[in-house]
Each structure stands twice: as structure tokens, then as C-alpha cells.
Design brief:
This protein is α/β, with parallel strands linked by helices. The strands form three sheets. Strands 1, 2, 3, 4, 5, 15, 16 and 17 form an eight-stranded mixed sheet that branches. Strands 9-10-11-12-13-14 form a six-stranded parallel sheet. Helix 6 links the parallel strand 11 and strand 12. Helix 4 runs parallel beside helix 5 and helix 6 runs parallel beside helix 7. The longest helix is centred in the N-terminal third of the chain and has 36 residues. It binds zinc ion. The site of zinc ion (ZN) has 4 residues, from loops.
């Protein structure tokens, strides 16, 4: 039996061994970490870059390290991704989607989807399609089911755009909605549930239906959100547009029936305006068999006709007026529902073709201005040093032909490449040393 002192000696030797071993391990880890960091430096070559703020850069290179853009350096090399001949721009931001909305097992509109495995897979698919279409950030406004999806994507467990969610919207039901104090408590509850912003339904349907919240109720909702550090997106038509603006809400959605004076007030207050030019209604019309008879939709196929004949032209007229209001900040939100996920960019074409929006303004609305509206203007929406490496490339020039937005051939989000079907691939990527 070894003596106590021998035992102590053996133990100390063992612990010394363990110490030196752990030291070696630490050294090895730091070495491989350095190596890993080195391999994470990515150089993208581009002949045309829209920087998201209205500038066009030519013949340059974007240096990405980890998840961020390190610098714009025309001399950087070696090239990892050759996007010359394409139009490179920041990943798009859609300020208004319903990422969980999908068609159910029976092929019919299932709204927010429910709790079935099919609904969960449909939601994951919506996120994938949206990312593949060049949208690296979306704001989803209307379902608590957004939360686990947002978190799974943020942890890198599922591919999809960065998601901001409003959790459960505040749906106006007149006096039944509650007293101002009850409304304030509801807003705080959404924050506790993980809301990144607050969604408020302050008006009824597109063609009729007045305000569903009083001025006093709206004041309480938007004031409490502000106190909690949250932005407010308000679904508003006609007089609800002005009321929401007066209440200090930060973004007005849809806006049919708004007068020029209402639009001027939004601009004066520095709020953001998000009208839709067509994708939403086109989606309903193209999928009317799937939407007919489901909650909030016409009971017959004929009931969809006014969308084409009356409401679509009203939307176009509104955007045409809105672009003429000095200083009005128009952001890009599609209201993507079932059938629209992955087709979000169609709204750019509608806005340019039917709404009189300049192509460059359309691109800015979904990049730097979109980021500003999300309170993320120092993180996303621009191609510049220090920004998240959210970078996409189009086969074509959207400034000359807006339909180029349909041809997204490269998608990087947070430094990770999710799509690369660019035409020119450098030899190193084809297995040949350059
Ligand atoms: Zn919506």
C-alpha cells in the first residue's frame, strides 16, 4: 500500500500531466481556431454593386470575414466568388409577411396554419423559399408560431431569413378591445412573449369598414409600445391612417383611402408608409379556388372580381400619389400570405410598372430604408464595412429591367452562402487550381 506522501506525489504527477495535456489542448484549439478564421475570409468579385443607399459601385471586391463585411477593397484577393456580370446588392428586407400562412392538407387556405406537422413543414418551407428569393430579413406580423421559427433560424438550425415577429397582433374590436390600460397591458404581454415589434389592426376590410380602435385606444397602444422600446405597424385604411399617425405609431400599412394630407402628415411625423402594389391581390386571384370560402374571403369565385376591377387600381393610384409626397418614406412590405412566399420580389415589379416607383427607390425601400424602418440601419441593408454579410446577386440589372429581381442567383446571409447558381464560377470552385 503506498504511503500517504507517495500517493500525494503520484497525484501531483498525474495532475501535472493533466495540466500539461490541457495546455497542449488549449494551444491546439487556438491554433485550429486561427486556421478556421483564416478560411472564413471570403472575397467576392463584382462588376456592379448597388450599395443599398443609392450608390452604384463598379469593379470592386467585397471582403467578408465570419458573418460581417470587413471592407470594400478593389485590390482584395484571391477571389472566392466571382459575381462579375451580375448585379450585387444587399439582401432584401420585407417589412410585412405572414411567414406561417400556408395552404393546408386539403389544398385550401389554412391561414396561420395551426399545429399540425404539415403546418410546421409548410412554415419551414416558406422560410426557405423566401431566403432563396433573396430576402435575408423579414418582419412577420401576426402569429405566435413565428417565435420558434425565428429562434431556430437565428440558432442556425433551419435555413431562412432573419425574422422579426410581432407575436399576437392587437386586433381592434371597438370598445371590446379594452380600456387604454388593458391595451397597455396587452402590449407588455406581447413584449414578454418575445415580440420584436407590435402589430395593430386599426381598420376593417379594404373596401369598407371604419376604424376598429378609437383615437384614445390607438394612442395608448402606440405610446405603450414606445415606452417598451418597440415599434408599431398599423393596418390602416381611410381615417385610421391619420389616427394612427397622430397616435405616434411608427409604420402605416396598406393605407387605401388615405388623402394627400394624410400622406403628408405621415411624412411630417417621420413615420414609414408601406402600401402594396399588387403581389397580395395577384396571389388571391391566382389562388382563388384555394381561398374561396375560407375565413375573411368571398364565398364564391365571382366574389373575387372586385379585387381585380376595383381594389387593384385603387392600390396603384395610391402608390402613384404616395411617390409624389416630398419626404414620405415608403418601405417595401408585401403582406406575403399562402401562395406568395418566395414570390415577394414580384411586388417590386408591380410597384415600378404600376405604381410609378423608380427602380432605384424600389431597391432602397427594401435595403437601407427598410433597415432604418426596422431600427437596424447600422446592421443590415447596406454593402459596407461593418454590416452583416447579407449579399445577393441578380442575373440582370434591375435599374434597366425590373424583372431581373426574379433572377436571384446568389444568396449569402450572415456570411453563409445558401445559393450560388451564378453563371461564372472560378476554376478553384470547379476543382482546378487557378
Ligand atoms: Zn398582413
Amino acid at each position: 500500500m503506498p504511503s500517504r506522501s507517495t500517493l500525494r506525489c503520484i497525484l501531483s504527477i498525474l495532475s501535472f500531466c493533466a495540466y500539461s495535456q490541457s495546455k497542449t489542448l488549449v494551444a491546439d484549439t487556438s491554433h485550429s481556431r486561427e486556421a478556421a478564421l483564416e478560411t472564413k475570409r471570403i472575397v467576392i468579385a463584382a462588376s456592379t454593386v448597388l450599395d443599398g443607399k443609392g450608390r452604384v459601385l463598379h469593379d470592386t471586391r467585397i471582403v467578408v470575414v465570419d458573418s460581417k463585411i470587413l471592407a470594400i477593397d478593389p485590390k482584395a484577393g484571391p477571389i472566392d466568388y466571382d459575381l462579375r456580370g451580375l448585379t450585387v446588392l444587399p439582401g432584401w428586407i420585407d417589412a410585412h409577411v405572414h411567414i406561417t400562412w400556408s395552404f393546408g392538407k386539403d389544398g385550401k387556405n389554412a391561414g396561420g396554419g395551426g399545429n399540425t406537422p404539415e403546418a410546421a413543414y409548410a412554415t419551414a418551407s416558406n422560410a426557405w423559399l423566401t431566403l432563396m428569393a433573396g430576402f435575408t430579413t423579414v418582419q412577420s406580423v401576426g402569429s405566435p408560431a413565428d417565435v420558434p421559427l425565428r429562434d431556430a433560424i437565428a440558432k442556425g438550425l433551419l435555413p431562412g431569413p432573419r425574422i422579426l415577429t410581432a407575436v399576437e397582433p392587437l386586433t381592434g374590436r371597438g370598445e371590446q378591445t379594452g380600456t387604454p390600460d388593458e391595451i397597455r397591458a396587452y402590449i407588455r404581454k406581447q413584449k414578454e412573449a418575445g415580440a420584436d415589434l407590435i402589430k395593430i389592426m386599426a381598420a376593417g376590410g379594404m373596401r369598407q369598414g371604419g376604424m376598429t380602435l378609437s383615437q384614445e385606444q390607438l394612442n395608448a397602444a402606440c405610446d405603450e409600445a414606445k415606452k417598451q422600446g418597440l415599434r408599431t405597424l398599423v393596418h390602416a385604411y381611410r381615417e385610421a391612417v391619420r389616427a394612427a399617425t397622430i397616435a405616434g405609431c411608427t409604420q402605416i400599412e396598406h393605407g387605401l383611402g388615405a388623402t394627400d394630407d394624410d400622406l403628408k402628415l405621415i411624412a411630417e411625423k417621420g413615420a414609414y408608409f408601406d402600401p402594396q402594389a399588387g403581389l397580395l391581390l395577384e396571389t388571391y386571384l391566382a389562388n382563388k379556388e384555394k381561398y374561396v370560402g375560407t375565413p375573411f374571403f368571398p364565398k364564391t369565385l365571382d366574389g373575387f372580381a372586385p379585387m381585380q376591377e376595383i381594389i387593384l387600381p385603387m392600390n396603384h393610384e395610391l402608390i402613384k400619389r404616395a411617390v409624389k409626397i416630398p419626404g414620405l418614406k415608403i418601405v417595401f412590405g408585401t403582406d406575403a400570405v399562402a401562395g406568395a412566399h418566395g414570390r415577394n420580389a414580384e411586388e417590386f415589379i408591380d410597384r415600378v410598372r404600376d405604381g410609378g416607383v423608380e427602380p432605384m427607390a424600389a431597391m432602397i425601400s427594401a435595403t437601407s430604408l427598410g433597415a432604418e424602418a426596422l431600427g437596424m440601419s447600422d446592421q443590415i441593408g447596406s454593402i459596407a464595412g461593418g454590416f452583416e454579410a447579407d449579399i445577393i446577386a441578380l442575373d440582370g440589372d434591375p435599374l434597366k429591367d425590373i424583372t431581373a429581381v426574379r433572377r436571384v442567383v446568389f444568396v449569402m446571409k450572415g456570411g453563409m452562402v445558401y445559393k450560388n447558381v451564378a453563371r461564372s464560377v472560378i476554376p478553384a470552385y470547379a476543382g482546378v487550381q487557378p
